[in-house]
Design goal:
Radius of gyration: 18 Å
Number of strands: 8
Largest sheet: 6 strands, mixed
Shape: globular
Strand content: 15-25%
Strand order of the largest sheet: 1-2-4-3-5-6
Order of helices and strands: HHHEEEHEHHEHEHHEHEHH
Number of helices: 12
Length: about 325
């Protein structure tokens, strides 16, 4: 059975409109332009009752400030929980604007503050620069919780794809540095294993979705090493971490036809074995990024409802 025959019927139509060279990472600048044009053609997101503002906060020592966008309900109590959100894009693509609609929606639906971070991208800025940008922005959020009206005991971190990978790595870094407290992690179909040796990492070669070739190129750009190199840090590729104990509870949704399926299953299993409360949800017939490209499909709606419910439980009890 070929790839398209296995795709959920509600998700097939979205792939027909995508150009086959959309994810050509042999030309990262060109791919950035194509994606900007694709998403730029969409209407600007409008969510009633939510406001946003951009700030520049202190970056890592000796590095530039980091831009964040803060979303919050207009009619809000004095204290709200917060979600620190990290956009995806294979560590080489993406920006705050691409996740604007998602962040606006989460701020309203979950009734929380969302802080979305604009981290530096590879290959111009390989690891650890993107991770340190995220850590600096999260630390700023924690240290300025009172000014932002955020409950410092109710800060979650989350992201999708590479943003999910950054979420997993950031959770490890936060645990090991011991400076910040986070209550929950939401890595959505996370990109967490540079080695690309699992069956699903070999199986997905469809050019219209995140595929093996793109993944190999992205990992090399992000880490500066060939995939599988022993020098790659667990903060870059979380599956390399030997000890997962003491991490915050996790909720991991992924797709049956996602390149990252096997690494996501393995990571969830290891979290459970380490005593970390963890939920793993696998959506039949779903490819990488499915709920972004086909948000109205039944399988997408189930995925969104699932992780939003988990986030609401984590932030509001």
């Amino acid at each position: 059975m070929n790839f398209m025959d296995r795709v959920d019927p509600g998700l097939r139509g979205a792939l027909e409109f995508l150009p086959p060279d959309l994810l050509d990472l042999n030309d990262v600048p060109g791919t950035r332009v194509k994606l900007a044009n694709l998403f730029g053609a969409l209407p600007a997101p409008v969510v009633e009752g939510v406001k946003s503002e951009d700030r520049h906060v202190p970056g890592p020592a000796g590095d530039p400030d980091v831009r964040v966008r803060i979303y919050q309900p207009i009619d809000r109590p004095a204290l709200l929980p917060a979600l620190f959100w990290i956009h995806g894009g294979g560590y080489v693509l993406g920006d705050i604007e691409g996740d604007d609609a998602h962040s606006l929606h989460i701020a309203k639906e979950i009734n929380c503050v969302v802080v979305s971070v604009e981290y530096r991208l590879a290959p111009e800025h390989p690891f650890p620069a993107p991770m340190e940008d995220c850590y600096a922005a999260l630390k700023w959020l924690a240290q300025n919780a009172a000014e932002l009206g955020v409950d410092p005991n109710r800060i979650a971190i989350g992201g999708a794809s590479a943003g999910g990978g950054m979420t997993a790595g950031l959770a490890l870094l936060v645990r090991d540095r011991g400076e910040i407290k986070i209550c929950f992690q939401l890595p959505i179909y996370p990109m967490i294993d540079d080695r690309n040796v699992t069956p699903s990492s070999r199986e997905i070669t469809e050019p219209k979705v995140w595929n093996r070739q793109a993944n190999l190129l992205a990992w090399k750009a992000y880490t500066g090493y060939e995939p599988g190199d022993d020098r790659i840090s667990p903060y870059a590729a979380a599956t390399r971490a030997k000890d997962l104990a003491g991490l915050p509870p996790a909720y991991i949704p992924t797709g049956e036809l996602d390149l990252f399926l096997d690494e996501n299953i393995e990571y969830a299993q290891r979290l459970i074995q380490a005593g970390v409360p963890t939920e793993l949800h696998i959506y039949r017939g779903a490819y990488h990024g499915f709920y972004v490209f086909a948000p109205d499909a039944d399988v997408s709606q189930r995925c969104i409802a699932g992780y939003e419910a988990a986030l609401k439980r984590a932030l509001h009890g």
